[in-house]
């Protein structure tokens, strides 16, 4: 089932991500509105616009709550303080130039790649379960259920990154550059996902009841690696929240205008407070819906692409 998710992630981010980034470049987009209008039309796009707006903020709140819990679990820092540290870090970064925000989003990637390859390499060769024996250990699952869960999971992952991909594409001058960046990024992400998936399967008896399986894998190699991974996990949360919050703010205000600076203060204070009042639990229950939303966007992008191509029109992406 995990491999099906990898295949769909590859498709979503390598092909569809490439198309979306190129559309963002063509419209010089600062938010997802123009891209949705191009794909769905002006009226129907508003439905997806409002849904994305709600979930951009909601998932960011969920991640702030998760950051607070991670600080407490890993470093014995109170949840409220951990969430506050993350909130302040995001707010300060949102004050920076967009190119600096993009660089901040990319800082963690090399470290994540090295650590994932290290963990996966160890367990691929020394795991308790060989790849040939995985099917005997991992509970048997319906292939169709695996395909469906992979589709929805990919839709969720794509919908979370959609607005950020559009904004980064909009800041790029050439469509070939933005498209290639999204495509290669999708390939790298898929390879990492496949590696860690194999590693988890090779240690399935050990990690099947773990709350954070990857952290368990790291700790079994060496506690220091687990500590480094926990730092990287917080950095990944930081990346996700930053991308979501910037996209949310850019949808309502002109980036770096007076209204933008006022808005991000209100947004971050509200996000911090809502992370303690059960709002995150509500969003968790609605993750599946977001997967369907992402799937609809993917299908719409594909239809738009082939309609314009078959009509022999000069298509944006």
Automatic annotation (TrEMBL):
Transmembrane portions of the chain: 50-71, 77-98, 105-126, 146-169, 181-201, 221-248, 260-280, 286-306
Keywords assigned: Membrane, Transmembrane, Transmembrane helix
Keyword Membrane among UniProt keywords: yes
InterPro entries: YkvI-like (IPR038728)
Keyword presence, Membrane: yes
Name used for this protein in its record: Branched-chain amino acid transport system II carrier protein
């Amino acid at each position: 089932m995990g491999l099906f998710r990898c295949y769909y992630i590859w498709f979503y981010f390598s092909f569809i991500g490439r198309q979306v980034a190129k559309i963002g470049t063509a419209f010089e987009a600062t938010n997802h509105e123009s891209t949705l209008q191009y794909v769905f039309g002006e009226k129907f796009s508003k439905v997806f616009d409002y849904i994305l707006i709600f979930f951009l903020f909601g998932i960011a709140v969920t991640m702030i709550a998760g950051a607070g819990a991670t600080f407490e679990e890993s470093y014995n820092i109170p949840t409220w303080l951990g969430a506050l540290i993350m909130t302040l870090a995001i707010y300060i970064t949102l004050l920076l130039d967009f190119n600096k925000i993009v660089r901040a989003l990319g800082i963690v990637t090399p470290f994540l790649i090295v650590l994932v390859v290290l963990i996966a390499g160890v367990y691929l060769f020394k795991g308790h379960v060989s790849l040939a024996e995985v099917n005997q250990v991992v509970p048997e699952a319906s292939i169709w259920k695996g395909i469906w869960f992979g589709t929805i999971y990919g839709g969720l992952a794509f919908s979370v990154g959609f607005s950020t991909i559009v904004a980064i594409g909009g800041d790029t001058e050439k469509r070939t550059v933005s498209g290639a960046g999204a495509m290669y990024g999708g390939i790298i992400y898929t390879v990492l996902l496949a590696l860690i998936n194999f590693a988890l399967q090779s240690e399935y008896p050990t990690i099947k009841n773990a709350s954070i399986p990857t952290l368990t894998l790291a700790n079994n190699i060496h506690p220091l690696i687990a500590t480094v991974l926990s730092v990287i996990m917080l950095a990944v949360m930081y990346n996700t929240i930053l991308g979501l919050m910037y996209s949310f703010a850019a949808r309502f205000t002109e980036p770096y205008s007076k209204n933008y600076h006022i808005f991000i203060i209100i947004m971050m204070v509200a996000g911090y407070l809502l992370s303690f009042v059960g709002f995150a639990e509500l969003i968790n229950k609605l993750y599946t819906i977001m997967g369907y939303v992402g799937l609809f966007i993917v299908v719409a992008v594909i239809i738009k692409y082939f309609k314009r191509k078959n009509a022999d029109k000069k298509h944006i992406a």
